[in-house]
Amino acid sequence: MVIIVEKNTKKHIFKKAKSFEGKTKDEKNTNNSGKLTKSLNRNITIFQSSFSNDDTVIFRKFQNQYSDKIKCCIIIIEGMTDIEHINRRVIEPLQNQVFQRPKSSVNLVDEVQNKVLPVNDVRQSTRLNEMIKAVCYGDTVLLLDGCDVALIISSRGWESRPISEPESGKVVRGPREGFTESIIKNVSLIRRKIKNPNLKFKLMELGKQTHTAICITYIEGIALDSILTELEQRLNRIDIDGILDSGYVQELIQDEPLSPFPTVGSSERPDVVVAKMLEGRVAIIVDGSPFVLTVPHILVESIQINEDYYNHFLFGSFNRFLRAASAIATISIPAVYLAIVTYHQEMIPTQLLISISASLEGVPLPTSLSLIIMMLIFDILREAGTRMPTAIGQAVNIVGTLVLGQAAVDAHLVSSPVIIVTAISGITTFMHPTMIESVVILRLVLIIAASFLGIYGYLIGVILILLHLLSIRSFGVPYMMGLTRLEEHDGQDSWIRAPWWSMTLRPKIIGARNQIRQTSRHNR
User: Fold this and answer.
1) CA 37, 128, 156: angle at the middle one, nearest 5?
2) What is the per-residue pLDDT for 20?
3) Which residues are registered as beta bridge partners of 203?
4) Which residues of the chain have pLDDT under 70?
5) CA distances to 301, 307, 396, 498 from 320, in Å
6) H or E stretch including 441?
7) H/E run at residue 327
8) What is the per-residue pLDDT for 3?
9) Residue spans of beta strands (DSSP E) within 136-209
10) Per-residue CA distances from 464 to 66, 329, 339, 458 (Å)
């Protein structure tokens, strides 16, 4: 697989030397469906019929200034092609070149390809379907009069967002770069961090209409062949009209589609993705999406962040413990409060019980309904703040929380403890931005269970959640791996972050092919 070079014009291009094994069904069905002729005008007509009613497709005819027999036409799409590159590297050389008398059309095409065009990526093609697809991708098709072979010239030049720090993963210490919507930039970001020939890339396409480029990347010798094979099989089974974001792929390849827990990881940060690849995971890059997927994905990854590994291991372990505790608290505090206040008042100290009872005086709604309503209002404010511009979103969150909360208490619609519980549960939710959807669902389920059966309903709900977690697999890897065993190196990077000099092995199962991370310990 050949990927990537950067031109002097700072426009990224890439070519695929061989198609990935899993070609799209449309490509298989349309191979050799049309052929070029030796008439330039006829070939132009063929392309015009293929791009009928499309005013963005440009047909530029020109000829060599020294020979009237050298007539050419380039086909490009406006906005997808680097026009300056085409003018300087294609049109100008062809117009000014002094051609030798060609013996055949084949010799003419070879001479143009090898002696005239100062372009890094140019190839011959006789397949109409391949040429049409190249034009749609932003490449240029060059037609020559008297030749039934065309040249496909790499000239992609569409605009893309510059590399910047992702909003979803800001850090105090660590790299400030994040993935963009360009698959080529994303691949280069990974290559910059892993300068090793064992880093492999496999390209394929998904989407019958969008033909979205997908890149599977892994480190040969570390990633398991079984995981890679399973991933390729699942991707090849996808048969959908379009892939507009990596979220499409994530939902279509995950192990438990009905589970609230994600079994496919995602990140906007190259350092996070590379760190997971170094442990044996496989990454999936989707063109048009800044979120890169990683498989397999386990539960412990939800409490791990890249900054844990950049700071002192004691501070990183403390922060990881806080995240683990907040994950349990955010789904448990509302349900436990509801169970104790409604069914188990004897568990509350007398003075606190008197205070809670006084706050409930005059409140018309039961505690369970008040808590559910306030949690839903908080989620509405959170969602509204997320969708609005940053400044307005912050104002909506602050004003909405203060005004609605105080107004609800003053109007005796809800009690003060309900507001406090809602605030604590809501704040701890933001400790896990990748698990917000799971937290919202689980919290609501536990509240409903506690409203019917009290503390017993809460415990039953927790047991069912744990049983569900223990039954989940992500590409054959147990979802709870690293959390249930503390033997040897299993617990060194789960609840705590052990010092680097002691983490000599990669995680079991995921990195089973090559478990040695470093050969010696650093003695202090």
Assistant:
1) 120
2) 37
3) 215
4) 1-34, 101-106, 389-402, 484-491, 511-512, 520-524
5) 11, 10, 30, 11
6) helix 436-453
7) helix 313-343
8) 38
9) 140-144, 150-153, 199-206
10) 81, 17, 18, 10
**In Å, what is the CA distance from 285 to each residue of 111, 178, 208, 373?**
37, 13, 18, 40
The dihedral sign for the CA sequence 250, 252, 254, 259: positive
Amino acid 494 reads S
Pairing mode, if any, of strands 122-125 and 57-63? unpaired
- Is 0.85 topped by the overall pTM? no
Residue found under tokens 């064992």 = 198
Give the contacts of 412 (CB within 8 A, at least 6 positions apart): 362, 363, 364
The dihedral built from the CA positions of residue 252, 254, 220 and 310, taken in this order, carries a sign that is positive
Would residue 438 be called left, alpha or beta, if left means φ above 0 and alpha means ψ between -120 and 50 degrees? Answer: alpha
Tokens of 98: 């002094």
Element (H, E) at 29: helix 25-30
pLDDT of residue 490: 59
Q: What is the pLDDT, as a whole number, of residue 320?
A: 86
Indicate the domain borders of the chain: 32-153, 167-297, 313-477
One-letter amino acid for residue 210 of the chain: T
Length of the chain: 524
- By CB atoms closer than 10 A (0-12, 13-18, 19+), residue 413 is middle
Cα gap 279→187, rounded to integer Å:
19
CA separation (Å) from 377 to 194, 290, 421, 475? 46, 30, 13, 37
For the record, the structure tokens of 465 come out as: 């959640």
Q: Are 321 and 495 in contact (CB under 8 A)?
A: yes
- pLDDT for the residue numbered 398: 65
At 303, give phi and psi (nearest 5°). -105, 5
Quote the DSSP letter at residue 31. T
CA–CA separation, 92 and 86 (whole Å): 8
C-alpha–C-alpha distance, residues 145 and 43, integer Å: 9
Closest to 132 measured CA to CA, from 152, 105, 112: 152
Tokens of 112: 């143009």
Q: What is the pLDDT of residue 480?
A: 86
Residues ≥6 apart with Cβ < 8 Å to 193: 270, 271, 274
Nearest alpha carbon to residue 319 among 424, 460, 173: 173
